[in-house]
Amino acid sequence: MSDPYDPGAEGAQMSFDGRMSYGDYLGLTALLEAQHPLSNAHDEMLFIIQHQTSELWMRLAIHELSAARQALQGEDMRPAFKMLARVSRIFEQLNSAWDVLRTMTPSDYTTFREALGQSSGFQSHQYRQIEFMLGNRNLSMLRPHAHRADLTTLLEAELAQPSLYDVALGALHRVVPLPEGVLTRDLRRPHLPNDAVAEAWSVIYRDPQTHWTLYELAEKLVDLEDYFRRWRFNHVTTVERVIGFKRGTGGTGGVTYLKRMLEVELFPELWHLRTGL
Q1: Does 135 fall in a domain?
Q2: What is the pLDDT of residue 17?
Q3: By C-alpha distance, which of 220, 179, 203, 184 is closest to 81?
Q4: H-helix segments, 174-211
């Protein structure tokens, strides 16, 4: 019988006294000690990890969206396309997470739901920041974060700058002029569908070879919203499957509230123009 395989014999580092290890670099001790169930229910660990990992993915999405927005304001927009594609893949991962959470039955959830108190994913400041970055700017959504001055400052700072779509419209304007009102609107408010914007995007779609960079940007935005819509839809389906039409722990209407969010369009003209092409 041969001796057990020893990676160290081939040069693998096996001693980390005073040296950086995998766990050190990733801060795994803090990460893996961040789960603190408040009940004895088996499925509460699933619930906590599902939401914690979702927040980590959202942190990466914010990182990528910030860089993409900056790149779109430069002379070469193409680096932003990879970042936007990555955000779409992030939401694909977030979509897959619902599949794991849906293994929790209504009976499982009731064993620890009371331990959540008034906490709810509705209160995620990172999700709110992503919505604001993508252009869904509803000032009433600042209120759940009013108890934290740092979070309010963060979200207010986001509202003070152009959304991703505002920046994309700025790039479109450099090729097909847009009305002044579109370019100078109140940034704290959501962009509303505009016929002139739809026509400008139609110019791009009717001649993609001439306007390939803007055409690719438009499709990257549609792809992103496609995955974002799927995430919202899966959220609704998961909540309905687990709690039916009960109110959410945070006081929202639960499924009824989430279904209203399905109606929100982030980049409306890019969807509406397709009918007329």
Answers
A1: no
A2: 83
A3: 220
A4: 180-183, 195-206
Tokens 């040069």 belong to residue: 11
Give counts: helices (H), strands (E), the chain: 13, 0
In one-letter notation, the amino acid at residue 231 is: W
What is the rounded distance in angstroms from the CA atom of residue 232 to the CA atom of residue 95?
9
CA-CA distance, 257 to 171, in Å (whole number)?
34
- AA identity, residue 266: L
The CATH number covering residue 65 comes to 1.20.58.480
Q: Please tell me the predicted confidence (pLDDT) of residue 246.
A: 63
The model carries a pTM of 0.91
Range of the domain at 255: 39-121+162-276
As for how many domains the chain has, the answer is 1
Confidence of residue 1 (pLDDT cuts 50, 70, 90): low
pLDDT at 260 over 80: no
Residue with the larger pLDDT of the pair 76 and 122? 76
Q: Which own/partner contact pairs does 121-126 have at CB distance under 8 Å and 24+ positions apart?
A: 121/51, 121/250, 122/248, 122/250, 122/252, 122/257, 123/250, 124/55, 124/58, 125/151, 125/154, 125/155, 126/55, 126/58, 126/59, 126/62
Region 243-258: mean pLDDT is 62
